[in-house]
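ok so dumb question maybe but i'm new to this and my supervisor (M.) told me to 'just get the structure for DUF962 domain-containing protein' and walked off. so i did the thing. is this what she meant?? sequence i used:
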Amino acid sequence: MKVSEMLEKYRRDHQHPVNRGTHMIGIPMIIISLPLFFFHWKWALGLFVTGWMFQFIGHAFEGKKPTFFSNPLYLIIGPYYFLRKLLRKTK
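this is what came out, is it supposed to look like this??
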């Protein structure tokens, strides 16, 4: 599957405004937590767990399971989608 197709599937699986909002909070928390594990593991763990809680709460509103359940590559596509969306808003 092409990246463009994966991005489109990701977009289709994230339509509910609450899900989109929780992902805009949860994804950055998870990303920030990863390098933070090298310096402050307690803070990193808190951010990581809270970020995932936001993700799953959003999917409860969406009524769909997280896309990465069907393909683990979506664990990379999600942050990429978020970053592209963020960069488009700043232009």
